[in-house]
Design a protein that fits this description.
135 residues, alpha/beta, four-stranded parallel sheet
Length: 135
């Protein structure tokens, strides 16, 4: 199983047949939150505890994560050998990374011998993308 975080704006999305798509756009964006900006959260990635907490305590984050978990688990139960999950956010550095890591942690906690969870953060080290209004 591979969970890939990425940003569609980088124009090289992950490719796989029939992935589970998770869009984190509905979660709080630290770039649009004055309080988060004052705490310097936008400079962090979703791998950092403070940013992961910020993302996963966003309204709707738990529901989004649960929905993805159920979709993955349904495919595992169906005996599908490879499950791919693509988690997107605006820059591929914060929301998608935090959600991908959270989902991977939940799946690894199941301790199923036949489930190997790999996580790839495709754009975590890429530069921030400017909003359309800033270009």
């Amino acid at each position: 199983m591979t969970i890939t975080s990425y940003a569609p704006g980088h124009h090289d999305p992950p490719r796989s047949a029939n992935p589970i798509a998770v869009d984190t756009a509905s979660l709080r964006d630290p770039l649009a939150d004055p309080e988060a900006i004052s705490k310097r959260l936008p400079q962090m990635t979703g791998l950092e505890r403070e940013m992961a907490f910020y993302v996963m305590t966003s309204p709707g984050a738990e529901r989004l994560s649960e929905r993805a978990f159920v979709q993955v688990w349904d495919r595992v139960i169906d005996g599908r050998p490879q499950v791919d999950v693509h988690v997107a956010c605006a820059d591929g550095r914060r929301r998608s990374v935090a959600v991908a890591e959270h989902l991977a942690e939940r799946l690894r906690a199941l301790r199923q011998d036949d489930i190997n969870v790999d996580v790839v953060h495709r754009h975590i080290h890429h530069p921030l993308l400017l909003a359309e209004t800033e270009r």
